[in-house]
Design brief:
- The complex is a heterodimer.
- Chain A is of the alpha/beta class.
- Chain A is 36% helix and 16% strand.
- The radius of gyration of chain A is 23 Å and the shape is globular.
- Chain B has 4 helices and 8 strands, in the order E-H-E-E-H-E-E-E-E-H-H-E.
- The chains are: A alpha/beta, B alpha+beta.
- The structure holds flavin-adenine dinucleotide and iron/sulfur cluster (2 copies).
């Protein structure tokens, strides 16, 4: 095929995926690497790419130490209890102690942060969230990245990382193709910061047909961060920790501002409060340490997100659905009504459209909620991602190997959803992690760790052949049939995606099985994924757009495999409401108060699973 | 609501093609105008709607759950720094909203870090990022550490 090969050589910091994490990395890298070559490779257009493409109405991670509101360790304790104990507290502490400086910069750059007219401080939505007019959040951070980077390659889908052939387990860049021209792009780089975001569309979505793009996390969140890293042999952590969200039905409109600022609340179909009646049973499953409603009532200790989901799911299964959000009281206040609507227009426009289409005016009618299909990501109330080093002044030896946010592959860094064990970073925390990894990447180069990297033409040519194989495959077999999409020699990317979603749903604990799985089901799921992998060698792409979908599918497939491996390994139900291991329905701190770590051997495809110790931040008075 | 394009308004300029994060706004080779090639991969993010210079793109709620007869229009004006929304319900109810999108002239307040002074070796060896510690608290306070906050990292089960 007549695609050109375009080589960008001599890069110091290559940013793969410029969402919130990637733009943070590209921006900050220039400060620490004045003369370094900084390049961005992004599959869309960085002005509107990633999870924040349509904007946000809140910054969900801001300490407010400036206003005396919180210390970093308060946020760590909050994230710890919300995630049932399983977090990387060194990484979280580090993110939290820097995140305010990111937010203060955003305000200086022109992002409209709302202020509390009485106190002058930022308008709080909840203890950690501040309210913004964030329609242009993404264009603003993109501007910052563009000012720092030497070059931004928009519309380049990165498919593989390049590995150094002189030193084992060291990064050497990345390759991909241009989604418009089809050209092959080779980026030879001393370091790579992966910010390619989380994964939607892995589990079968509730929406069907035309609405299948209406997923909570963006449909373009293709699990590329995970696919790229796992294939390069990077260790992953907490990949079983997929997230389920309670959201407005069908549109998946956000509920944060509704619960926290508008003070709306939920009811079952009979108009009753239902949540608390599930707590005694839940306490038997997870222990009082993780669910203590009285303590939560007295303090700021949250009821973990997954446990609230559990109450929701159980109430619906008991036949007392639907669950409603009681908006009719709050919406009588015109100011709160405006906040309620703008909250959607600022980050999930589709929910506003749906209410307009169905004549739902929350002032006169309490809208329905639902629990979503599971998502794999690492910056919301979940911590899937790569196993990364922490900062040297915080991390214990097991968590530290030289450079902040460096993965188990040398020279490979990450930010946002790519980094594991760091829930509740959200947009601001992801940008901050990008900044941290950029500084560390520059230091790694300055320390002479990236000398004499070798990438052979063979590696480059092999990858090229691999990338275009779906186009070739289509060309070879298309004319065997008259017309249409049914072919005995190939499947197209949509057919492959449908198969992936169905099997993940049924064997991995999706919505149609009420988030339930067990060892037997997981093993069947893994077998079916292996066979799907064989068929993905025969995925066919009719054009370059389908080639993009083919590679997104391959990344989603690899992510799914890792999710099932981790789910199989952790023999307990740590997060009821996210998923259930039917054969181990209780939380088991004796054996499983640990972080799970996997590595897939790129040569054999075999996974090795380990338990890593879970370190906690402990105050003097708690010792 | 997946997007669709009005035949009489679109001039095929390609702005929507350039911006769509899902790569689904393409130019039809016959009519030489844009259309949504893959509605079931549309997030209804409105990036293309906001970018179209001729207001040629609209959205119609997903067929599997949204009845017909509604509309949601938007006008984003970068120079004015505002975004205006108009929501029309199926039953005719109308709601309008106007929000700021920036507080500064576009892009000018973002520093060009290549022009900042070189960080000192001590700054490089510290845990600080650009503009820290000042920007953390906007006073003279320093970065939080385990020591400053009286903390240790301990293995074991703590809640
Ligand atoms: C509906 C919704 C509401 C939210 N609400 C809030 C909120 O109120 N407040 C808040 O702070 N946070 C909120 N978040 C969370 C926030 O958006 C994420 O935490 C954050 O964007 C994660 O950053 P990231 O850089 O990891 O991923 P992203 O921002 O998604 O960036 C990933 C980037 O990688 C690119 N990419 C992917 N694959 C490839 C590839 N193969 N090659 C090249 N590039 C690739 C993508 O195009 C994208 O630009 C919300 C998210 C959603 C979806
Ligand atoms: S609404 Fe968003 S996803 Fe849909 S076509 Fe427009 S830009 Fe693309
Ligand atoms: S931006 Fe508007 S006018 Fe330009 S091609 Fe797209 S729909 Fe047509």
């Amino acid at each position: 095929m007549a695609f050109k090969t375009i080589v960008e050589d001599g890069i110091d910091v290559l940013v793969v995926g410029a969402g919130l994490g990637g733009t943070g990395a590209a921006f900050e890298a220039r400060y620490w690497g004045k003369n370094k070559k900084i390049v961005v490779a992004e599959k869309a257009n960085i002005d509107r790419s990633g999870a924040v493409a349509q904007g946000l109405y809140a910054i969900n991670c801001y300490m407010g130490t400036r206003w005396g509101e919180n210390n970093p360790e308060d946020h760590v304790r909050y994230a710890r209890i919300d995630l049932m104990g399983m977090v990387r507290e060194d990484l979280l502490f580090d993110m939290a102690r820097h995140v305010d400086s990111t937010v203060h910069q955003f305000e200086e750059w022109g992002l409209p942060l709302m202020r509390n007219p009485k106190t002058g401080s930022y308008q709080r939505e909840g203890r950690w969230q501040i309210m913004i007019h964030g329609e242009s959040y993404k264009p603003i951070v993109a501007e910052a990245a563009k000012k720092s980077a030497d070059k931004v390659y928009n519309r380049v889908c990165v498919t593989h990382l390049l590995m150094d052939e002189a030193k084992e387990n060291r990064i050497a860049g990345a390759v991909g193709f241009n989604v418009r021209t089809g050209n092959y792009h080779v980026f030879k780089s001393k370091t790579v910061v992966v910010g390619a975001g989380g994964a939607s569309n892995i589990f079968k979505p509730r929406s069907v047909g035309e609405g299948a793009g209406r997923v909570w996390y963006a449909p373009w969140s293709s699990g590329s961060a995970y696919g790229l890293l796992i294939n390069a042999g990077a260790k992953m952590t907490q990949m079983e920790n997929r997230i389920v969200l309670a959201r407005f039905k069908d549109g998946y409109g956000p509920v944060g501002a509704y619960f926290l600022h508008l003070k709306t609340y939920t009811q079952n179909g009979l108009g009753e409060e239902y949540e608390s009646k599930w707590f005694p049973d839940l306490q038997k499953m997870v222990g009082k340490e993780y669910l203590d409603p009285e303590a939560s009532h007295r303090t700021h200790r949250p009821i973990p997100t997954c446990l609230r989901n559990h109450a929701f799911i159980s109430e619906v299964n008991a036949g007392r659905g639907p669950i409603h959000m009681v908006t009719m009281e709050a919406f009588q206040d015109p100011h709160l009504e405006e906040v309620g609507w703008e909250n959607f227009l600022g980050m999930t426009v589709g929910q506003a459209v749906l209410w307009a289409a169905t004549d739902v005016d929350p002032k006169y009618q309490n809208p329905e909620l639902t629990t979503s299909e599971p998502y794999v990501m690492g910056s919301h109330a979940t911590g899937c991602g790569a196993w990364c080093s922490g900062p040297e002044d915080v991390s214990p030896p097991e968590y530290f190997w030289g450079y902040n946010r460096m993965m188990s592959v040398e020279g490979l860094f990450g930010a946002g959803d790519a980094v594991g064990g760091t829930p509740h970073a959200f947009s601001s925390g992801s940008f901050t992690e990008g900044r941290l990894s950029a500084k560390a990447a520059c230091k790694y180069i300055d320390d002479g760790k990236a000398e004499d990297i070798v990438v052979s033409d063979k590696q480059i040519n092999d990858r090229k052949a691999e990338i275009y194989k779906p186009l070739e495959h289509y060309k070879i077999f298309r004319n065997e049939i008259t017309a249409g999409t049914v072919n005995p020699n190939y499947i197209n990317p949509r057919q492959g995606l449908d198969r992936l979603q169905k099997l993940m749903d049924e064997y991995g604990g999706g919505v149609t099985v009420n988030y339930m799985t067990n060892e037997k089901l997981l093993n069947i799921g893994l077998k079916k994924l292996k066979i799907l992998e064989e068929d993905l060698e025969k995925v066919a792409a009719e054009n370059i757009h389908e080639l993009l979908r083919a590679w997104e599918l391959k990344h989603r497939h690899r992510t799914s495999e890792c999710v099932l491996q981790h789910t199989l390994f952790r023999k307990e139900t740590r997060w009821p409401g996210y998923y259930y291991r039917g054969d181990a329905l209780k939380l088991d701190d004796e054996n499983w108060h640990v972080l799970t770590v996997s590595r897939r051997d790129p040569a054999t495809g075999e996974y090795t699973m380990e338990k890593a110790p879970c370190y906690h931040l402990v105050g003097k008075d708690e010792e | 609501m997946p997007t669709f394009v009005y035949m009489t308004r679109c001039d095929g300029c390609g702005m929507c093609v350039d911006i769509c994060p899902s790569d689904i706004m393409h130019i039809d080779t016959t009519v030489r105008r844009a259309y949504n090639i893959e509605p079931n991969m549309c997030w209804e993010c409105y990036s293309c709607v906001k970018a179209c210079p001729h207001q040629a793109i609209d959205a119609r709620g997903y067929a599997d759950f949204a009845p017909l007869g509604h509309s949601l229009r938007v006008l984003r004006e970068e120079e004015k720094g505002t975004i205006a929304w108009r929501i029309k319900f199926r039953n005719g109810t109308e709601k309008n909203f106007l929000s700021p999108i920036t507080t500064k002239p576009w892009g000018q307040a973002i520093p060009k870090l290549a022009d900042e002074s070189e960080p000192s070796p001590t700054m490089r060896d510290s845990q600080l990022l650009f503009s820290e510690p000042k920007y953390i608290r906007l006073d003279d306070g320093d970065l939080h550490t385990l020591e400053s906050n009286g903390l240790t990292m301990k293995e074991g089960v703590y809640y």
